[in-house]
Amino acid sequence: MQSPHRRLQIALGVLVALHLVALAAPGTLWGMSHLAVWPLWAAIAWTAAALAGLALAPRWLGAQHLSFPSRRGSLIAALAAGVLATLLHERSHFFGDSNLLTRSLVHGPVTYWRAPLLVRPATWMAITAYRQFGWSPGTTLTVLSILAGIASTYAALRLIAALTPRAEARLLFAALLATSGAVQLFCGHVEFYAGLSLALVLWTWLAVATLAAQRPSWPTWFATAVLPTLHLSATCLLPAQGVLALAGWRRRERWTAIVTAAAAAALAVAILYAFGRDPRRREQAAASRIIGAFLDHSDIRHAFSLWSSAHALAVLNQWLLVAPIALIALLLALLRRGKGMVTDLGRGTVQFLIVAAVGAVLLDLVFARELGPYRDWDTLAPYALFYLLAAGVLLLRAGFEARIAAILITIAGLHHTVPWLLMSTSPERAERHVQLVLAVESQWSPYARGYLHEEIAIARRDAGDLPSARREYEAAIAANPSDARYRVGAGDMAHRLGDSKAAVAHYAAALERRPDFGPAHNNLAFALMTMGIEPERAREHALAATRGDPSNLNYQLTLGFVELQRRDLPAARRALDAARSLQPNSPKVKDLAEAVALFAAAARDSGTSRTPAP
Predict the structure, then answer these.
(1) Angle at CA 532, nearest 5°, toward 527 and 538?
(2) pTM of the model
(3) Torsion angle of alpha carbons 188, 194, 195, 198, nearest 10°?
(4) Do residues 183 and 421 make contact, with C-beta atoms less than 8 angstroms apart?
(5) In this predicted model, what pLDDT tens digit does every residue of 319-328 receive, in sequence order?
């Protein structure tokens, strides 16, 4: 084998061997630690097999003729990918905005402004599927993820076909994209980002086809305008649209470009205002939250400073997770700078891919606030597309033989991807991985650590393991003592386990930190009522909860039972009327109505209808 390909073998071998390093430090190298949840013998055997494949496969397969699929073949490949994704779909999910949807079918406004065209349709489909077919939101999002994967596979293959006419170069790009972190998004990931990844593939296909055929660039303006309404992070691709605009400008599409750019900007603003919520205020808050986490050491989201060594490690691990081959390609291309070959890739196409990759790098630099925020990898994974396409360009221009490079990259990519996919199919291994990552406290912000402990606590609670859920809530409190939500969760677990005194203490501590927190007021009132102590204090907190949110059914029910305990029948009836106006057919409302009726009957029998409240 030629010297440059030997270098590729060695570099990919080092990448594979990093997994063994991660076995010793799975939290520090969290992006490379999926083997840490498997038995040691399996991790070593899997790594040894990959190293042997890197050493021997080019000799065995280098002379074989390989072909790239046609349109029909691309469709067959996409459907096959869908079958595989169905078999390997994610079976555990601990974090993210979609987790809120899976619990309550009511999604908060935080994601509407950040991704209105991504979240609103998915939310509507989840609610519709629940009402029509009884599907859980998690099931609907899993199906949407797999469908996005089928469409993305087909679109990616056609994108590659538009990128270069040479079959061997096409195979190289296909091997690269198969190593993308977006692969995990398409295997039933219970989040919205599979849709974003599909949109980015379609957008790139349109851009590459436009540049290759020298078509008018005006459609790309509207496609680019839609991307930030799918997710705000896509603004990092605006410089790449500048490459498309420059190509059109050179073809004398000047007035068309100006008018189209203005119309596209108006379209983006209209979508944000129609489907989002006050985008200007929200964007300012987002910028303050993300950048402020780097600069303000007192911020609970602060893990490390901008441009610190910890920040560099976080970004490096992000790339190792979602696009590890791109790092190897960049290193090898730089080592062979000036020794490259002329490729059939157009100058404009190369510029577009490089600029898009640089935009994704800038996104990673700003967004990677900490080493281990699980909820962030899926936001950044779709942009691995641009790293890997740029990596293919660099490898070809540096003179690497495409067929051999494709074989080596496939082996290293499978070594990285397969354990990750299989881990996600096992809830036990997935949770073990989370715990290993959480063990490295120094790289987490208090906010992220507390958030993830809370997610594990909720999963344990839903599984019926209340003692374990209580421990996780207490770990969340230890990580982020300022968040009242965790104290309410710990109080709920303590109350359900019979430790009412501890529950009352947790609720009171929550109110010290957040005096207007409705759940803390309501749950404290309920705990005092069930303990049969301090009825006036219970009423005070029940009233505070209903004043803050009169439309909350549970708050009105708690107030009604508290008033009954105080023997104030008219007040209990008022609370019952309020609850009936919210959900007249609720079983809980019927329970309160029966309790009020029984109390009224007992009062009539005793000759009194009301004990006045003080």
Answers:
(1) 55
(2) 0.87
(3) -120
(4) yes
(5) 888 999 999 9
